[in-house]
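subagent[fold] <- orchestrator: predict structure for attached chain, return tokens only, no commentary.
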Amino acid sequence: MTTRTPRRLDLSALFTWLTGAALALDLLLIVGLLVLVAVRGAGALWPHPVWSLGLADGTRVLGEIHSREPIPDAETGRLGDAGRIRVRIGNRDVSGLDFRWIDETQVTSRETPRDAVLVERLEWGPFFGFPAEIRTRAGVVASGPDSVWTAFGPLHDAKVALRERLRDVERGAIGDVNHEIERVRLAERRLEREAPPEPARSERAAALAARRAELEARYETHLAELRALREELADGELVLTTADGAQHAIPLGQIVRASQPNALGLGGKLSLYADRIAEFVGGQPREANTEGGIFPALFGTVMMVFLMSLFVVPFGVVAAIYLREYAREGFVTRAIRIAVNNLAGVPSIVFGVFGLGFFVYGVGGSIDRLFFADALPTPTFGTGGILWASLTLSLLTVPVVIVATEEGLAAVPQAVRQGSRALGATHFETLRRVVIPAAAPGMLTGLILAMARAAGEVAPLMIVGMVKLAPTLPIDHHPPFVHLERKFMHLGFHIYDVGFQSPNVEAAAPLVFATTALLIAIVVSLNLTAIVLRNRLRRQLAGRGV
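subagent[fold] -> orchestrator:
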């Protein structure tokens, strides 16, 4: 009779399966998160049908149905078929609310009227209603749903063109005059501070006074033009009938766009969707950043990442080359490597405090005293700006670049170095022509990791230059054209501000998902660009046999 011996548990295979399962779970969670953000972000701008709901009390509600949730049974506590729906009713200036929860048991009828209009405004959010009439100072232009909708298009296009012209005058002509007036003011301050001899001082003062008078006259001319444009823009209003029968007038100049979602086919919905995406990516924010576009935040994020890359790569690469190729192994070298590794674990807010103290107050204050004394006490570089934010993030990410570059240098075989020197090359020539090109993929790996971390950092930027709303971009047509001292907006902070600091979080939730999806797309695009370049270098090096 034979006895069967129990099979011993293979711990190695068990750990392999557990590791594989953990990796699969991580990938599943990441893919699920990305899909959720992509779907919610892409769907935020898609036109939804406008519902007219009749309620048991005889009233009607007009708006978009955003979500539904079940209501637990009062006796058993279990979730049943009964539920409630969340309707975006808009009309905040009339009702004071953006959303309303309605029990489905109170809904007696549901309709999607074709003539229901969704009006997107510069202020007060969306408005739902039915077209009644269009009137101007001259009288009623159109009356009735069909005639109003026919006349609205050309009138609104004229108002949009007028609004663009007004913006050009505000930010173009008037902005240029204000810039020149500021230069004259600084010149006058410089004249007072330098105090030249009297004849020269009187001549310069007279020339500056004449220039100021000329600029102020130009300013008054543009201001009069601006008043005329605003008066013309205020002429005309669209009258809508709400769900309860009341009428409300909306100035035509305050309307961003108006649509009839229930009457749109697939082509019309795609056209409206593309128009909203174009406004979201390339437009200016409005309504405390909860509506409109995010172009300033998008521009600030990309520019900051590029500036950070320009600063972090030279310093990180040079430091890694010295530690790997020149420094002798000893206590000092080991201490430096330990410090670099520990620096990677320092909380990011600490780097922000350091950047505020060293870059902003220290370096920036010294620059103001040396080169911008005429503008003091108003700081120029002695306050937060995109330059100091980029340098702060460079310090934050330089350990990653150092470690990755050292790994890339260590991966180059010693035989390659010895062969180069045997052919008569010096140590520097070997480093420049052989070692660094072979280690370039590792350097790019460090840059990829640095860009990925820098694009998502928010805490240190809140201290060294990032703001909720920046009046101007860091680049314009005024010399020196690139203004590194200016404050900037960032997509990460924009997500936090809109999602958690907004006065109307529910209405801003779709914009949060759309901005998050765009930020992920930017990070992925930057990383893919660097990865493609790294892989190309690897193929070239493989062909050379290095």
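orchestrator: received. Logging for downstream: The chain has a mean pLDDT of 88. The radius of gyration is 32 Å.
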